[in-house]
Description:
There is one protein chain. By secondary structure, the protein is mainly alpha-helical. Strand 1 and strand 2 (157-161) form a beta hairpin. A two-stranded antiparallel ribbon has the order 1-2. Helix content is 72%, strand content 3%. The chain folds into two domains: 1-117, no CATH class; 121-218 and 231-260, no CATH class.
Amino acid sequence: MLGPTALACIWLGSEPWTMLIAIAAALLSWEWVHLCGYRTRALPGLAVPVAVFAAGTLAVVERPNGALLLLVALWVVAWWTADRGRDVDRRGQPPGWLAVGVLYIGLAGIALIELRHDNAAGQINVLFLFLVVWASDIGAYMAGRLFGGPKIAPEVSPNKTWSGAVGGLAAAMTVGAVTAMVLAPGGTGRAAAVAAMLGVMAQGGDLLESWIKRRFDVKDTSALIPGHGGLLDRLDGVLAAAPVAALLAYALGQGQPLWR
Length: 260
């Protein structure tokens, strides 16, 4: 359900895509706040979705620099709000963890909005990002199951192996190169290199999410998707790779595919 919905919104334009990101940001913020043991209907938990949506609004009206500055400022406010009079939060963690969600979700949200709002190249860049991240996840799972071998970080994620990491990287590079050939021929080698970078970030995001769940002693971030956990579980790779893709798009300039 998530895949076809995302692909349809990418294809239809920046407005449907922005609406989808807004819904995703709301659900991700809800998951993060509840993971920290708070509620989104009152402070300090309310500070997370408010900060994410305020910064996202500036991104929608093409003020990315202002969005980033506002996000950092509201992160400080969220940290201060959560920190008042508390040594630990309601899950036994330092209260600053609540504020981490502002940057964790907010940066990715701004990045995804900015990527798609480039009318000339936004569609193919966001499509490239998602196909590469999905390929990395699938390739890592299949290679890990098939070859097994030494674990990457057994204390963080006991199921992730080095063979899976290599398989995920190979799948990301292959899909990135093929996607570039189909969407904007030329620069296949650069597309594979960019896909490798995004694939590494996606796998890093997966490990980060596993470490966070270990920290909070939970199996899934929520039960939002029956049998699959929450959106944070499903989008961990995208949350890590999207800011890198947006930085690359910014460096290349408007209208340029990520591999040019």
